[in-house]
Structures are given as C-alpha cells and as structure tokens.
C-alpha cells in the first residue's frame, strides 16, 4: 500500500476513496464533505465536533448557514456519523440518503396505517357484537 493512502480503502463498486476512520475534529469532517469554508462560522459560535454532531437543520440556519445545499450536506454528514457510514460526498451517497429517508417515511406511514386498520377492525367488531346482543 502506498504511504499516502494508508488508512484509506478503495471502494471498487463506486470507484472512489473513502476514509475508513471517522474524523476526530470538526475541521476534518467539514473538509471531507467539501465544506471547510464554513469552519469560521462554527468557530465564531464556539461549535466543536461534539456540538456539531447534535445540530439540526434549524440550528445550522441559526448559525448563519443559509444555503440549502451546504445545510443538507452537513445534516447528511451528521446522520452518517451517527450511523458510522462513510462521510463521502458523492451523487450516489446523496441518492442513497434520499432513499433511506423515503424508506423511513414509508415505514412511519405503514405503522400509522396499521394502527388505523386495527382501530377500524376493533370498531367493526364492537359494532357487530352490539347488534347481536
């Protein structure tokens, strides 16, 4: 292995390099997702990596990150950090993130629909039992 690529593995399926170790500071994380220019904003707000990993989209707006694109990349990086996924910034990753969110939303909708179905089923049983007695 070449010394410059130590600690990095090649993902042949996507033909890109990804860090195999999570960043240990905010500067490294922002650099990995191509947003190091926003580091001064976080320094001004006394936000370190630990705090950054708790920020929401609304928090990022309050810090002064007004553009949707950078906020989306940051919230995606935060989510990937918590799921121990690589922090790559590629089209494939963005699409995968979108699909994951859609799947979660569908799961929530399915759960609500199932609860509504169970309630309707219970109401029909109650109604039928009341008519018989």
Automatic annotation (TrEMBL):
GO terms for cellular component: cytoplasm. Residues 21-84 form the SAM domain. It comes from the Eukaryota. Keywords: Repeat. It holds the Pfam family SAM_1. SUPFAM superfamilies: SAM/Pointed domain. InterPro entries: SAM, SAM/pointed_sf. This is Ankyrin repeat and SAM domain-containing protein 3. The gene is Anks3_1.
């Amino acid at each position: 292995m070449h010394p410059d690529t130590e600690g990095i593995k090649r993902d042949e399926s996507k033909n890109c390099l990804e860090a195999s170790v999570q960043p240990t500071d905010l500067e490294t994380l922002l650099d990995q997702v191509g947003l190091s220019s926003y580091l001064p904003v976080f320094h001004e707000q006394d936000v370190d990596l630990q705090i950054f990993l708790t920020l929401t989209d609304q928090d990022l707006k309050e810090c002064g990150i007004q553009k949707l694109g950078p906020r989306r990349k940051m919230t995606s990086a935060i989510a990937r950090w918590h799921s121990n996924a690589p922090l790559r910034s590629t089209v494939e990753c963005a699409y995968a993130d979108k699909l994951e969110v859609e799947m979660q939303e569908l799961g929530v909708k399915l759960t609500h629909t199932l609860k509504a179905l169970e309630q309707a089923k219970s109401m029909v049983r109650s109604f039928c039992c009341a008519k018989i007695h």
